[in-house]
Write a structure and sequence with these properties.
The complex is a heterodimer of chains A (about 210) and B (about 190). With about 210 residues, chain A is mostly helical. Chain A has two domains: about 15-120, Orthogonal Bundle (Rna Polymerase Sigma Factor, Chain: A); about 145-210, Winged helix-like DNA-binding domain superfamily/Winged helix DNA-binding domain (Arc Repressor Mutant, subunit A, Orthogonal Bundle). Chain A contains eight helices and no strands. In chain B, helix 1 packs across helix 3. Chain B is about 65% helix and about 0% strand. With about 190 residues, chain B is mainly alpha-helical. Chain B is elongated, with a radius of gyration of 49 Å. The termini of chain B are far apart. Chain B is built from nine helices and no strands. Among the domains of chain B are: about 10-80, no CATH class; about 135-185, no CATH class. Chain B has helices at about 10-15, 20-25, 30-55, 60-80, 95-120, 130-135, 145-160, 165-170, 175-180. Classes of the chains: A mainly alpha (about 210), B mainly alpha (about 190). The interface of A and B includes residues 149 and 198 of A.
């Protein structure tokens, strides 16, 4: 059972490892919060567009790492942005905004995974459902496309076998390219624990994919 | 793996932290293992990049961004989140209260009317195991129309044949020695 991320995690003094991007994001988020608290909702909404521009693509990658389905990924990201905008006045500026946002996003993804699991228990889809992967947009050749789709399919299947925590760590570190320090901040784990989970996830995936 | 080679955990740590281990610099085997590990993570990343690019072409990302902004506008128009400190206890609605009172009054009137109608239309049947003397003499309260009727009803109960009480009187035959008025009771 995937564990939801706690919201008030004890603060760790270590800063996030991507200093430039989070600081930009946090700065814009602080502006949006100030505008909302002051009652300037239209201006806050306008400024929030910049926040969406900064976070949207990466949010899609994180959510896709969990959900592996494009439409549901978009819904999860949309929900997270709406939730964040509505609760922006409760954002604590002592933490990087991206950490707060990612926790909300990941919790939403975990809820969706849980709901999907419930649905699957009642109505099992065919094991090789072609709808799981989106049609290719541009590919050099049908063979290459087939190979890459097969590889992505194998990776998805292998990821699905990972324990929830290993999967969380792996998605954030290798599929979303966040630093270990940042992953530890988002998940509320020490960096050493993150490395242990990463190592176990890698070993398991290698075993599965290199067969 | 020979004695002194780096463990998988240590290799992974080197990969993650970029720390150059002294043994690693001198050991071809460990370097090869590290390169394999790095290569594997590279393949995983590349596979994921390709899957993401297939699932989310630029046009789809742009459309998704527009939908996010539209959803925020929609929520903003639909909901006003109150500041927690400023929440006031909501006063009862002026429209809801008369509606509730009207419903209660209507229910009461209908209940009274139905009760009166059923009692007046069905004669009171004596209880199967009850005393016929008492049942026949006792009038239900619904028949009492006024003060005089009420007094009449009480009188009829007091003066009527009360066989059930007579048996009690017969159980206490000496009572008249102390109170001759007992015999006065018919």
């Amino acid at each position: 059972m995937p564990k939801r991320l706690r919201s008030p995690v004890p603060l760790v003094a270590a800063p996030a490892a991507e200093p430039s991007a989070p600081s930009d994001v946090s700065r814009v988020a602080s502006e949006v919060k100030r505008l909302l608290v002051a009652g300037h909702r239209d201006e806050a909404r306008e400024r929030f567009t910049a926040l969406v521009d900064l976070l949207h693509r990466r949010a899609l990658r994180v959510a896709y790492g969990y959900l592996r389905e494009a439409a549901e990924t978009e819904e999860a990201v949309q929900d997270a942005f709406v939730k964040v905008f509505l609760h922006m006045p409760s954002y604590s500026e002592t933490r990087p905004f991206e950490v707060w946002f990612n926790r909300i996003l990941i919790n939403g993804c975990l809820d969706r995974q849980k709901a999907r699991g419930r649905r699957l228990r009642w109505a099992l889809p065919p094991p090789n459902d072609p709808a799981r992967f989106e049609p290719a947009s541009t590919a050099p050749s049908p063979e290459a496309r087939l190979l890459s789709k097969a590889a992505a399919g194998r990776l998805s299947d292998a990821l699905a076998t990972l324990p929830p925590r290993q999967r969380q760590v792996f998605v954030l570190r290798y599929l979303s390219s966040h630093s270990p320090a940042y992953v530890s901040d988002v998940l509320g784990l020490t960096e050493a624990t993150v490395r242990v989970h990463l190592f176990r996830a890698l070993r398991r995936l290698r075993g599965l994919l290199e067969r | 793996m020979s004695h002194g080679d780096l463990s998988e955990t240590r290799l992974h740590e080197c990969l993650e932290t970029g720390h150059a281990d002294a043994h690693l610099a001198a050991c071809d085997g460990c370097q090869r293992c590290l390169a394999e590990l790095g290569g594997f993570t590279g393949v995983v990343r590349a596979t994921e990049d390709a899957a993401f690019a297939r699932a989310f072409p630029e046009a789809r990302i742009a459309a998704s961004r527009q939908r996010v902004l539209a959803a925020i506008d929609e929520q903003r128009a639909a909901r006003v989140v109150p500041f927690p400190g400023a929440v006031q206890p909501s006063a009862p609605s002026l429209r809801a209260r008369p509606r509730w009172m009207a419903a209660a009054t209507a229910g009461l009137i209908i209940g009274l009317a139905l009760g009166r109608w059923t009692q007046s239309s069905t004669p009171v049947q004596p209880a199967p195991g009850g005393s016929p003397a008492i049942s026949a003499s006792v009038q239900p309260a619904a028949f009492v129309r006024g003060e005089d009727d009420l007094l009449d009803a009480i009188e009829s109960v007091r003066l009527g044949p009360i066989a059930g009480l007579r048996s009690l009187h017969e159980l206490t035959p000496l009572a008249e020695q102390y109170d001759p008025a007992w015999r006065a009771v018919p």
